[in-house]
Amino acid sequence: MPEEQENTGETRATRETRETHETHMSLAAARAALTERDTRIAELQAEGEALRTERSDLENAHAGAVLKYLQAQRNLHPGLPADLVKGATVEEIDESVKSGLAVVEAVKSSLAAEARNNRVPAGAPTREVNVDALDSKGKIRLGLQQDKS
Q1: Can you give the residue ranges of every domain in the chain?
Q2: Average pLDDT, the chain
Q3: Nearest-angstrom CA–CA distance, 28 and 20
Q4: 99-127, pLDDT tens digit by residue?
Q5: Which terminus, N or C, of the chain has the lesser number of Cβ atoms within 10 Å?
Q6: Residues 6 or more apart whose Cβ sits within 8 Å of residue 74
Q7: DSSP per residue over the chain, as a string?
């Protein structure tokens, strides 16, 4: 029986050695997986930061382009007051130009209609004298003036 105990002891020692080896291998694989995961996380974080920077640059470029478009529209429509041409996007600027042109056209039409209605004839107005309001001397003077003309 001592041989059996020796075999059992060796088997147990061999098994423990094998299990220890497997544990070390599993631990090494887990560490490698963690290192790989940490590397991937670092890569994704760097990529995310690069994308944020690119987005910021694009937003700045877009804002500059919109500002140039706004100025171009103001230059293109000098008859529009600058405060009517405004907006933070191309669509808003286009809409403000459209409504500004409508306002200017309405004002022009209104002023033209008012000018037509308030036309003053050229020359001096004719003088009409109320004869009933004149005294006798005034009536005589009026009659003499009319005879001269």
Answers
A1: 2-115
A2: 87
A3: 12
A4: 999 999 999 999 988 888 877 667 766 66
A5: C
A6: 80, 82, 85
A7: -HHHHHHHHHHHHHHHHHHHHHHHHHHHHHHHHHHHHHHHHHHHHHHHHHHHHHHHHHHHHHHHHHHHHHHHHHHH-TTS-GGGS--SSHHHHHHHHHHHHHHHHHHHHHHHHHHHHT---SSPPPP---GGGS-HHHHHHHHHHHHH-
